[in-house]
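Entry for biotin complex. Fields follow.
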Amino acid sequence: MQKQKLNSKDTLLNLLENNRGRYFSGEELANELGISRSMIWKNISLLRSEGYNISAANNRGYCLEQSSDVLTESGIRKYLSANQFDINVVHTIESTNAYVQEQALRGKSQGFVVLADEQTDGKGRCGRSFYSPNASGLYMSVLLQPSGEIAKEPWIVTIMTAVAMCETIEELTGKSAKIKWFNDIFVEGKKVCGILTQGTLDIESGLTNNIVLGVGLNVYKPIGGFPAELSGVAGWVCDDQQEDMKNKLAAVFLQKFWSAYTQQLFLISKEKYRKRSLVIGKKLTLIDGVKKESVTCIDVDDRCRLVVTDWLGKEKTISFGNISIRLEN
Ligand code: BTN
């Protein structure tokens, strides 16, 4: 992922980006860029295939619509106040988590971020897959190399992520976001975001050295909707396309998460996580492989474990791991 010199397509995009909502004739663009009108047309087609909303009108030419929302590195940087991330945006990838894991082994360091428009093999928890269709979502992985308490208690990264993502959704969409223990974010009763945090352990010290934090957010309804098995459970955070929404969501999330992570805000993050819990007081099914058990959740404790009572009223604590839960009606 080397940064390359701008080609004619990128130069055209910069011009349109800097003048959203304004029409340019084919001739004007050709003169401005010093290329032929047929090259302009070819580049416009390429940009459209990447998701840019470019209108064409007789006698007026081409215009990048105000509402165009395409994930780009420069688009994300516009909304970041500092430069602490190495941001890489790709169109299609198998899995951003798998790619960042690979890059960590090749020497990339903390703050390396990969975002994609689409994943062909998106990974979810417990070996499941994560549906990651083109253009409607934000699929992002961040490499972390924790020190101090976080290296000893790496699970806090998932907690900080869930809180940062809920706050981001609320700030940018005005919708209330809740956490279904322990890594799903719900808006209006539907799952809109999943978090997959994967780490490697340094055996000698017993500390976690590399963490890949993966976040998949359904920003819009996918073109053609969700597949049947997801249609009742999956939701999205924006009904209509909005200017730069994906870039804003990525930047605001990165900033909020980074602030909690670098300051090691354990207590505040745990308290915020508990307050946003969707499960306290609810009946749940615990699913552990083929084993299922009905319980009632009475609390989320100070290590963010689930405190439940079983059908006999006996209390027990459930830690993270390969357990997943289902809310009962
Ligand atoms: C889950 O809901 O089980 C977790 C889903 C995590 C999905 C994200 S999308 C970006 C990153 N890359 C992946 O392959 N998975 C995570």
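NOTE: The pocket of biotin is lined by residues 95-97, 119, 122-125, 128, 130, 132, 139-141, 184, 194-196, 214-216 (CB under 6 Å).
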